[in-house]
């Protein structure tokens, strides 16, 4: 986790070369985003150590689900959020998971991920490119460094470990975080929260295609439900954007034009 953030931070800093002369509000948003990323990573990996992957991922999704549910202003919006949550939970509903610490870490990961969606939206609105993300990831990497050193010591910087971590950092941090930030510039937190439910579904499909991990009927049903919820959420958001862009909706009253 630590190397993933450290290398991702180095790559993003090299690409965007962010300066430090920002206003206080922007710095608060950057530090908040980086802190949420670091705590999310730490708590999620701790949860996976104690719970099955499906159970940990399901609980992690509760954060984005709450964002989607709270942001719903219409019954259809709430329907898509609940449908996505159902689709994620279906493949993970087999068997109880009683590890209290694992459940706590997974719930904390969900809270941090939900918080990052909200703070990330503010970061995307305040900084028009990737400079804010570069500093946020750098702050998160610094916060996670003591944890990484305590867990692995000097083995953290072994050449073989660094090579593998570099690939993971590019594919699992630099590219996803950059794309997510661009998505948050264009989508509401509600729709973004629903779309994140595609992650476990895509993971299951990758396991089928690359690892020959067969999917059960329940898992196929969950993937289908999540896909339908994502399509419905994005279509309803596009409809709202078209309505907001309607010229008749933004024209002032005739009396105002006459004056």
Query: With helices defined by DSSP (H or I, 4 residues minimum), what is the helix count?
Result: 13
Q: Which stretches of 5+ consecutive residues score pLDDT under 50? A: 241-259
Radius of gyration: 20 Å
Largest sheet data? none
Backbone structural class: mainly alpha
How far the N terminus sits from the C terminus, by CA atoms, comes to: 62 Å
* Order of secondary-structure elements: HHHHHHHHHHHHH
Strand content: under 5%
DSSP, total strands: 0
Helix content: over 70%
Average predicted local confidence, pLDDT: 77
Any idea what the shape is? Answer: globular
What are the main properties of this structure?
13 helices; globular; 259 residues; disordered C terminus
Structural write-up:
This protein has a domain at 2-74 and 92-188. Helices cover 80% and strands 0% of the residues. The protein has helices at 2-16, 24-50, 53-60, 62-70, 75-89, 100-126, 131-152, 159-186, 189-195, 198-210, 217-244, 247-250, 254-258. Helix 1 (2-16) packs antiparallel against helix 7 and helix 4 packs antiparallel against helix 5 (75-89). The longest helix has 28 residues, at 159-186.
Helices and strands, with pairings:
Elements: H1 2-16, H2 24-50, H3 53-60, H4 62-70, H5 75-89, H6 100-126, H7 131-152, H8 159-186, H9 189-195, H10 198-210, H11 217-244, H12 247-250, H13 254-258
